[in-house]
Each structure stands twice: as C-alpha cells, then as structure tokens.
Design brief:
- The protein is an alpha+beta fold and 323 residues long.
- It folds into three domains: 91 residues, no CATH class; 95 residues, no CATH class; 88 residues, no CATH class.
- A four-stranded antiparallel sheet has the order 1-14-3-4, with no helix packed on it.
- The longest helix has 23 residues.
- The relative contact order is 0.21.
C-alpha cells in the first residue's frame, strides 16, 4: 500500500517528538537516510523507463541514480562506466578520435556512462545564450549559472525566470559549457533552462529542475557507434534516487511507513546520545528494507506464452529461432 506525503505527515506527526512545522522535513531526512544505506542493493527502488532519443547521447530524469540494465532498439546492451575510456584494452578517448581507429574499435552494443551534468546537453563549441522560465503563477527568484564563455573565460551570471510567455535571454554571455546551475533556496516551481544559438526564436529546453534541489544534476549516457540524429529506443531499468517530497499528493517511495518511522526514531535517539536505542531502530529499519528486497527478488514460476517453443521467452521467438 502506498502513502501520500500528506498522509505520512498526519500519521507520523507524533513520532520522535516531531512538531507539525518540521514533520515534512523529518520525513524527507529519514527517506534520504534509508536510500543512502547501500542504495544499489535496494531492488524495490527500481523502475523501468522507455526513452526515445536522437542519439548518440541521452539523459535520465532527475530522481534517477543511474542505469542498471538496458535494451537498445530491442536488444540487450552492455553498460560501461566512466573509466571505460581509460582502460588499457579499451577504445581510448572516443571524442579525440571520433571517426578513426578508436571509434572503429567500439562495439555497436555498448552504452557509455558520461557522468553527471547540470543540463541535458551542453551548448557545445558554437555556444549559445540561456534563459529561464517557470510554469506556475508565483514569480521565482534568480537562477545562478556558472559557465565557460565562448572565448574560454569563466563566467557567473544570473537568470530571472519568466512565466513562459516570453523568454528573457542573457545576451551578454554566450556560453559553450555549463558548469553548474544553482536555484534559489526558496524556489517552489519547476525551472526550465532554455538555450538559443543567437538569442532569437530558435530555442531548446536543456534542463528541467526540481524546485527542492538547489544544484540540479542529470545522469548522461552515450550510445556508441550511433550518428547524431539517429533514433534510439531505449528500454532502461533505472535505480531510483527519490526526489524530495514537496506537495501533499506526492507519493512516498516505500510501500509502508514503518521503515520511515524507525529511521525517524533512530535519528531522534542518536541526536540525544541514546546510542543503544538508536541502533535498535536502525536495525528495525534495515529489516524492513531487507523484506522489501526479498519480496522483489522472489523467483516466480516461468510462464510459457507460446507453447510450441517450450521454455522460450514468449514473443522473442517471433524474431529469432530458439536454440
């Protein structure tokens, strides 16, 4: 059973001497602590996404820690970490030798991790001007941008978000690389970052930032041996990194409130030097997490959909012969 943020605040309001004014913050703190304990072992914090991208690069949305497994255009692919290009037996710097020997050494069945970025895609060598918009009715505070200008200078400037009816581009700074974006701590609406090469009518949204994350980041990947603009259909299993809960109708990432309650009690006891009690509540919280993972990993009896191909994977036999 899933709970909303509003329900959780009402039910947990008396937990660990929490006051109504800070119960939401305490719940978010407890969730962050639970997720931070061996996050990649939390099988229940995974979801499957379908991503359509004009290759070779694509981005995961905020709230995603990274790819676990992926299929590219219907086929399973290998995933490589950020150290892939540095391996002595690897392809080397692909960007340095984009169409040469290093590029040819790549397999078509590979997705490479490019790390974290403040935007979905960088402006590139040609550079561009930035603007910010919001979708709500309440005006938002300025957004701070740290970037590299087209002449190589490090620049810092601020964008005043508009309500989306018009774009107010910063024409004084033409940037080719965005180092970081910092939202005001009082932001309460999603902020979109726009890019235009010349400050005119042609623009693209290069980031959509959650209001409760002051320094937004997106996980970027690249499909190797795919030309710019080639369509890529990606079926991705993603490890979830839950976003902060803001609205009362936001859904909690756990199917029960018990581990959150235990973690809130752990934090309160730990802050009051009650280490024995704190350890007890921490163990109870981890027990709940272990139960979730066990339920997720329970092996089910295989169901054969196409009887003539016994023990096959169903519709897969329409595309290839069963061996």
């Amino acid at each position: 059973m899933r709970f909303t943020f509003g329900e959780a605040k009402r039910i947990l309001a008396g937990t660990a001497h929490s006051k109504a004014i800070d119960i939401g913050e305490r719940i978010n703190d407890a969730i962050r602590a639970l997720v931070g304990a061996n996050p990649w072992e939390h099988e229940f914090l995974r979801q499957t996404l379908r991503i359509s991208s004009a290759g070779p690069e694509f981005s995961l949305p905020q709230g995603s820690a990274g790819l676990v497994r992926a299929c590219l255009n219907g086929r399973p692919v290998s995933l490589h970490g950020e150290d892939f290009k540095f391996l002595s037996s690897g392809p080397g710097d692909i960007d340095f030798d984009r169409l040469g020997r290093n590029y040819i050494r790549l397999s078509a069945q590979e997705i490479e991790d490019l790390g974290m970025s403040p935007v979905w895609r960088q402006p590139g060598p040609e550079g561009g001007h930035l603007a910010a918009t919001y979708s709500g009715e309440k005006p938002q505070a300025e957004v701070t941008v740290h970037a590299v200008a087209d002449n190589g200078d490090e620049v810092t400037f601020r964008l005043l978000p508009t309500n989306g009816e018009s774009l107010d581009y910063d024409l004084q700074h033409k940037v080719r690389y965005v180092r970081s974006i910092v939202l005001d701590r009082h932001a309460d609406e999603y902020i979109d970052i726009h890019l235009t090469p010349d400050g005119g009518d042609t623009d693209a949204v290069i980031a959509r930032c959650h209001p409760s994350i002051q320094v937004p980041e997106f996980h970027i990947y690249r499909v190797n041996r795919v030309r710019p603009g080639d369509p890529c259909e990606i079926l991705a299993e993603v490890q979830v990194d839950p976003l902060p809960l803001v609205d009362d109708d936001d859904v909690l990432p756990f199917p029960t409130l018990e581990p959150i309650k235990c973690m809130m009690l752990y934090q309160w006891n730990f802050q009051n030097n009650e280490t024995a009690a704190a350890e007890k509540y921490m163990n109870q919280a981890m027990t709940w997490i272990t139960r979730f993972n066990s339920a997720k990993n329970t092996v089910q009896t295989p169901t054969v959909v196409n009887v003539p191909y016994n023990m096959s994977m169903g519709q897969l036999s329409e595309w290839c012969s069963n061996l």
